Amino acid sequence: MRIPHNYNDPLATPLSFDVSSLSTAICPVRVMLSKHAEVITLLPNSVTQERGSVVHGVLKERDTSSLDAIECRQLIDEIVSRRCYPKTNPNSVMVGDRFEQFFSLSEWNKRASWILKLNTEQYNYPKFVRRSSTSNRQGSLDREILEDQLPSPGPEAWVASRKLKLKGKIDQVVMDPDGSWQLIEYKTRNIFTPDGQFCESTKAQLLFYALIVRQLSPNDSIKLIAYGRESIPFEFAFDSKAELEAKELYERQVALFPSDSTICVQRDAKPSSECKSCQSRPCCPAYHDWAQQCWGDEEKSDDCPLDTWGVVTDVRSVNGYPNGLVYLEDATGRNVLLRYLHPQVVKEPLISGMKIWCYEMKTDARSKLHPRDFFHHRQDPKKVYESAVASRIYYSV
């Protein structure tokens, strides 16, 4: 597979922002790289992301316009409780032919390919946006907002503001008889922290949706509602205090992206523990430099994703796996052992002298410090998909 981590092109400031990405943005490079189709495929989605994609797909496939918020929440609970997402039982009841087809597949890589196809469909934006004619990279997902878009009542409602350069899709919109709005967000995870606080990322997402609606319809009242895995929703009004909070948050997030200059991957990336969930890190040189510095630091090692890279020094076949044991001299000169590299990913035997980059590995080592031993998937056949689907390996001679 091609070497992924030499992305040094300057990145232009976005023409618009997705609410979901801007609300949680910490690193501007992460947001920009996520706008390139070739980059977002470097690492598979996490199980949480896959689950969310399937839930949205089910809601899109089934006509949920007749369901109220509680009924939609119950449908999502049913999807999740039946484990109707990757790692599911193929005999589960599905909604729509595409889902039946997906869940009848047995090979994990086919499942991952289907999820990737589902994810790319979300970038087929409606007519109120268009791709930039000045996009400097093929496959750019950056879009210019052509006109404002108030959400229509119902599920999966698009909303957009040219002034704010913000666009997104609200899970469900309800218009009350008095003309007030209910903007509803569904999450397949908990929306409260262990100490009982409302999740900041979910709150920011709702605030940005409300900010767009308020800008386009300034006299309407707005209620924000979030449903998570907990038994009760979280509701709050978009009053003057919440609006001020939304504006301050918006200004802070947009300031990460200077309008009069380009973004340099090496200079402007902000590597941190947030890199664990970043699908762009295989092509981010700033991440690679930061991770190598953290590998030997006990205080920082827990912040690092379970990735490793270096030069292969020895390869041994084990139990029919040609790459059963792979010995690696990592980028800092230390020895690392990789076990059971999945043949669906590494389709040929590795040889000494190859350079190899391994992302989202597993480890059962007790030591918190690198170098540690990694494995790609478990020997247990029931858990092969679970541990292998999340990993990605690149190599070259």
Question: Keyphrases for this structure?
Answer:
about 400 residues; Lambda Exonuclease, Chain A; OB fold (Dihydrolipoamide Acetyltransferase, E2P); 2 domains; 6-stranded mixed sheet
Describe, in short, the structure shown:
The chain is an alpha+beta fold and 397 residues long. Helix content is 29%, strand content 20%. The chain has helices spanning 19-22, 28-33, 37-40, 47-61, 69-81, 97-103, 108-121, 200-216, 240-254, 265-268, 285-294, 384-388; strands at 17-18, 129-131, 143-145, 154-161, 166-175, 181-186, 222-227, 234-237, 308-318, 321-330, 335-339, 355-359, 374-375, 392-396.
Task: Write up this protein.
With 397 residues, the chain is of the alpha+beta class. The protein folds into 2 domains: 264 residues, Lambda Exonuclease, Chain A, CATH 3.90.320; 102 residues, Nucleic acid-binding proteins (OB fold (Dihydrolipoamide Acetyltransferase, E2P)), CATH 2.40.50. It is built from 12 helices and 14 strands. Strands 1, 4, 5, 6, 7 and 8 form a 6-stranded mixed sheet that branches. Strands 13-11-10-9-12-14 form a 6-stranded mixed sheet, with no helix packed on it. A hairpin with a 6-residue loop joins strand 7 and strand 8. It starts with 16 loop residues before the first strand and ends with a strand. About 12% of the residues have low confidence.
